[in-house]
UniProtKB/TrEMBL annotation:
<dbReference type="Pfam" id="PF01553">
    <property type="entry name" value="Acyltransferase"/>
</dbReference>
<protein>
    <submittedName>
        <fullName>1-acyl-sn-glycerol-3-phosphate acyltransferase</fullName>
    </submittedName>
</protein>
<keyword id="KW-0012">Acyltransferase</keyword>
<feature type="domain" description="Phospholipid/glycerol acyltransferase">
    <location>
        <begin position="51"/>
        <end position="164"/>
    </location>
</feature>
<dbReference type="InterPro" id="IPR002123">
    <property type="entry name" value="Plipid/glycerol_acylTrfase"/>
</dbReference>
<keyword id="KW-0808">Transferase</keyword>
<dbReference type="GO" id="GO:0016746">
    <property type="term" value="F:acyltransferase activity"/>
</dbReference>
Amino acid sequence: MITATAARIINFLPDKWVTSISKNIINNYLNKYANIHITGSENLKEIQTPTIFVCNHLSNSDGLVLDKALKAINPTFVAGEKLSKNAVTSIGVNIIKTTTIKPNTADKEGLQRIIKLVKQGESLLIFPEGTRSRASSLIEAKKGILLIARLTGAPIVPVGLYGTEKLLPIHQDGDMKAETFNKADVHIQIGQQFELLQRAKDQDKKEYEESTLTYVMKKIAELLPEGYRGVYK
């Protein structure tokens, strides 16, 4: 991966240069290391937009390959703010439409930005797990996706992704700038759009949220090999 020093130098350049250089760097890495296989692209042809794409999360390369696979819709990615603050990972953020949010907090400002984007017609891509899975399989999702879907009224498109955990593995010490690309087959499967289940009048709120979140995550799990389904088998 590009060194932290080089990344910092790039980020000091004028914005149009930063985007152009970052795009060339990322495209070179993906062309050299990633053999990307996409299935289900036909499901994008007649979907209602704006929509919310939901996908499992395995690697910091996930957004880079998904940006290519979903270019026809060109969604805005919801990312943790630390990615844009890290000189190396910001290279990827520079070439993808993103809006940041503070993970594991009541980030009202970040949520308001997200809602406004959808109201303006922008589709989103969200990783409901909220972090990369160190187990390389689905982990328990956060409830934020339910709030965003409810407040925007946008339908959901599930995406299953695997192979990126080999393309750009998570560093064992969590040092993102030390992560390196490796040759890997990457598989992306795009599912069919669906609407959130409606809460019954007599249904307990907690029960509804838990069952609906499981419903959403199992839509992703259905697009993955069994070994990647984790807690949503």
